[in-house]
Amino acid sequence: MDQRPDKFLQHLFETAIDAVSAKNCLPDHLPAPPPGRTIVVGVGKAAAAMAQTLEQTWDGPLAGAVVVPYGHSVDCASIDVMEAGHPIPNEAGQRAANHILQLVSPLTSDDLVIALISGGGSALLSLPAPGIALADKQQVNQALLRSGAAISDINIVRRTLSVIKGGRLAAAAHPARVATLIVSDVAGDDPTVIASGPTLPPAPQGRTATDILNQYGIDISDSVEQHLAKALPEISDGPAFARDSTQIIARSTDALNAATAEAKRQGWEVLTLGDDIAGEAKDIATEHARQALEAARFRDTRSPPLVLLSGGEVTVTLGASNGDGGPNSEYLLALGLALNRDPKIWALACDTDGIDGNSRNAGGYLTPYSVSGAIEMGLDPTGLLTAHRSATFFDTLGHTIVTGPTLTNVNDFRAIAICAGAH
């Protein structure tokens, strides 16, 4: 092994990010040019980078607008880049949603809309249904995010309270053809879920927004309650969408495949635990620790190093705690406690968008000595985990990974290195 395990794991993370960047995954998926105008709309953490790459590769004039979280913009020549609040929607996102609707509404059947969709879009493209104030949507979003609800459930609520999500943006653009290019940030890669599917009619769910709000005990305003009582049916797939196309151009699988190829190139064995893992961060960490310890039992100094890779999206149920960190750092701290200082095992967990929860970090890395080192520094790792303050643990140790916005997002990237002996 040519480098320390933590440096190797960080290299795999960087390799994974590069594989799902716009410059590498978008050019091969461009639609055929139309006889009329080409209008670009987009939303999400990767939208500006996708728009910039599209400008560099498209043969012909473009116009349009994309909306990204603050700090995720890049320079574009002919496509407007707008910034808005994430994960809680704000007035800037409402203005951006109105602007995007106005761009697509006057189009004809000769025109093409290229929709660049990526994770984070649900909060950014926020246009409340009539009678619902932005503050009402903000309150519901905040409560759902704290509840530990699955993103699929959160998005059912979001699109029920919206006039642009759940295929309504595409409906506004018709009769123009709509080509949707997606960077997927959801386990299972359901395109109707990503950014709440503004250009795609949702698949039947069997659950309503009211069911979900009741399940998680979410308090709602009178205006939201009144809207839910008379909410219009969701848009159904039909002839209006027949000319539209949808392609997922980057996903968790692509990131893990790139990391796998690089690890093997460097002489590592690779075991993939899954690319669509979902659940509570602490529970997933406990199971991964069990699998790592079991694998480590059968390896000695003659064994090649082994790395366990996984993707998907773990969550944290905060309850009354504000927390300090995110799902990846919580996973990593729980993993460290469950590994019980095994000298062979190192690990990394990061969000591919570069922002883990409410921290300033992408995530962090774990050494065999992280837990004991933290205790020597006066920290209580178990107490920090219980209080959802995992970022404090890794910040104090200096074991955080800081990338800034990566301008892509295929959710979690986790890697557990099992080495032959201590380092």
Topology:
Layout: H1 5-19, H2 22-25, E1 38-43, H3 47-57, E2 63-69, E3 79-84, H4 91-104, E4 112-118, H5 121-124, H6 134-147, H7 151-160, H8 168-173, E5 177-183, H9 209-215, H10 222-230, E6 245-250, H11 252-265, E7 269-280, H12 281-297, E8 306-315, H13 327-339, E9 345-351, E10 363-366, H14 370-376, H15 381-386, H16 390-397, E11 400-401, E12 412-418
Parallel strand pairs: 1-2, 1-4, 2-3, 4-5, 5-6, 7-8
Antiparallel strand pairs: 8-12, 9-10, 9-12, 10-11
Helix pairs in contact: 1-11, 7-9, 12-13, 13-16
Mean of all residue-level pLDDT scores: 92
Low-confidence stretches: none
Q: Radius of gyration, rounded?
A: 22 Å
The major sheet is characterized as: 6 strands, parallel
Extended strand count: 12
Question: What is the fold named in CATH at topology level of the largest domain?
Answer: Rossmann fold
Give the name of the CATH superfamily of the largest domain. Answer: Glycerate kinase, MOFRL-like N-terminal domain
**Shape category:** globular
Biggest sheet strand order reads 3-2-1-4-5-6
Oligomer state of the chains in this structure:
single chain
Tell me the structural class: alpha/beta
Characterize the structure shown.
The protein is of the alpha/beta class and 423 residues long. It folds into 2 domains: 178 residues, glycerate kinase, domain 1; 229 residues, Glycerate kinase, MOFRL-like N-terminal domain (Rossmann fold, 3-Layer(aba) Sandwich), CATH 3.40.50. Helices cover 38% and strands 19% of the residues. Strand 7, helix 12 and strand 8 form a beta-alpha-beta unit. Helix 7 crosses helix 9 and helix 13 crosses helix 16. The longest helix is centred in the last third of the chain and has 17 residues.
